[in-house]
Amino acid sequence: MDFDDQDYSNEHFQDMDLSASNISAKELWNCTFSNCNLSGVDFTDTSIESCLFVECNLSNICVDNAKLTGDTFDRCKLLGVKFYKSSPMSFEISMKECTLLLCNFSDLKMKRSRITSCHIEECYFQNTVLAESDFSGSKFRNTIFHNSDLQHADFLNATGYTIDPRVNRIRKAKFSVPDVLNLLNCFEIEIK
Known about the structure:
Elements: E1 8-9, E2 12-14, E3 27-29, E4 32-34, E5 47-49, E6 52-54, E7 67-74, E8 77-79, E9 91-96, E10 99-101, E11 114-116, E12 119-121, E13 124-126, E14 139-141, E15 144-146, E16 154-155, E17 174-175
Parallel strand pairs: 1-3, 2-4, 3-5, 4-6, 5-7, 6-7, 7-9, 8-10, 9-11, 10-12, 12-14, 13-15, 16-17
């Protein structure tokens, strides 16, 4: 499909290969992408508002200065996405049962984000505001939280996270046993 100069609202894109498309400097409002290959798509300077992505491949998309507002990703694959390059003035997303690999969320304000039942591997949350966010049921591997605000965040039934309480704010965050013991890894103590 060729994305011309028009903006899109209330459109439904299904079973489409849009890989490497240029969808920059557009407005996408209330659109649904179902089972689409969006790998390598250029969303530079695009406003993506209230859109739903279901079972899509969003690997290596470019979101430089993109506005992501009220968007939902459901069972999507996101590989190598540099979310930190998106517009910091407008960033509000929700993810459910997604695979996130090598994604960078550093320096973003993501208060009250929902990233539930996701597989999160080698991702970066540095200087990220995640207060009141929900990570429940997510599985982490080699993911870095550094100087992040995780106050009141929900990590119930999440596994594999490593969070250093000395360099992250975790006041009133919720954790489950036994993975809550991961908070002690930084102290190099032995628990028996």
